[in-house]
Design goal:
Blueprint (H helix, E strand, L loop, with lengths): L2 H12 L3 E5 L17 H12 L5 E4 L1 H5 L4 H14 L6 E6 L3 H14 L4 E4 L9 H4 L5 E7 L5 H5 L12 H10 L8 E5 L4 H10 L5 E4 L8 H8 L1 E2 L4 E3 L1 E5 L1 H4 L7 H18 L8
Parallel strand pairs: 1-2, 1-10, 3-4, 4-5, 5-6, 6-7, 7-10
Antiparallel strand pairs: 8-9
Helix pairs in contact: 2-4, 2-12, 8-9, 9-10, 10-12
The structure holds orotidine-5'-monophosphate.
Protein name: Orotidine 5'-phosphate decarboxylase
Pfam families: OMPdecase (PF00215)
GO biological process, one term: 'de novo' pyrimidine nucleobase biosynthetic process
Length: about 280
């Protein structure tokens, strides 16, 4: 199964559009694990176990591991997800972007070392910085398009005077990803839940691509508006998926010993909000 097929299968199996983000911050762990980076694996594995049947995808954020010299724990975590949640694809949030020869090493890290099913990338350095990842058949590649942060405007909302139609930069990225760059059907786009109008625009420009949409939960994005803007489906089938990510709101729903149960409750709540927002006539 390729990444997109895995995503569709997980969506059907778990009736979920929720991507559970794994951004482990030891300073927010419950006692007695607080401030102990050696517990990153234990914390994340408990979250995975508590949400395995609720998630459309898991998204570990690599910086939260690397900053604590915990890459070995990340490897171990991906191996655990394969066993505990074998139907749930893993998006490694790395946001890489570099010249081809270096990108080859990053691609190897994501797909061979960690065994991720998909990766997030910055498209800033152009198509040759994306190509090495496309050499891995069946793997998914999400390109940053219209990010959830306020500073996303600085570049992404600039107009490109030299491109026919003078699109905004994020619109141009969406068109490239839907069209000429998507040689092997592996591309998807990242669009922030904090900007539903832009999600709608990206969806219009990229009708068949999976969208990774972070920004509900801690960043305050509206789950209902997000789904209505980005979800494409009919009564018969889902045409193009969205994976709506929430990290901190789930991970730190409780600071106590009940953190995993609280994470499950918050994941259930978010999943239900996303399901309820699907347009009428769409598959339940
Ligand atoms: O690529 C991402 O995942 C991403 C893109 C974006 O535009 N905004 C964004 O917040 N993210 C990531 O999504 C997660 C959001 O976390 P919460 O705000 O805690 O739900 C973090 O891991 C971010 O790095």
């Amino acid at each position: 199964m390729n990444f997109v097929e895995m995503l569709h299968a997980a969506e059907r199996r778990h009736q979920s559009l929720l991507c559970v983000g794994l951004d482990p911050d030891p300073a927010r762990f419950p006692h007695p694990w607080r401030n102990d980076p050696a517990r990153i694996y234990d914390f994340c594995a408990a979250i995975v176990d508590a949400t395995a049947d609720l998630a459309l995808a898991f998204k570990p954020q690599i910086a939260y591991f690397a900053a604590h010299r915990a890459e070995d724990q990340l490897e171990h975590l991906l191996a655990h997800i394969r066993v505990a949640a074998p139907h749930v694809p893993i998006i490694l949030d790395a946001k890489r972007g570099d010249i081809g020869s270096t990108a080859e090493q990053y691609a190897r890290e994501a797909f061979e070392r960690y065994g991720a099913d998909a990766v997030t990338l910055s498209p800033f350095m152009g198509f040759d910085s994306i190509q090495p990842y496309l050499q891995y058949p069946g793997k998914g590649v999400f390109l940053l398009c219209r990010t959830s942060n306020p500073g996303g405007d600085d570049l992404q909302n600039q107009r490109l005077a030299s491109v026919p139609g003078q699109p905004l930069l994020y619109e141009h990225i969406a068109r490239l990803a839907q069209g000429p760059w998507n040689l092997s059907g592996q591309l998807g786009l990242v669009v922030g839940a904090t900007y539903p109008q832009e999600i709608e625009r990206v969806r219009a420009l990229a009708p068949t691509l999976p969208l990774l949409i972070p920004g509900v939960g801690a960043q305050g994005g509206d789950a209902n508006a997000t789904v209505r803007a980005g979800w494409r489906g009919s009564a018969q089938q889902t045409e193009a998926l969205i994976a709506v990510n929430s990290s901190r709101a789930i991970l730190y729903a409780s600071a106590g010993a009940d953190f995993a149960q609280a994470a499950r409750r918050e994941a259930e709540r978010t999943r239900a909000l996303l399901q309820a927002a699907r347009p009428l006539g769409a598959p339940a």
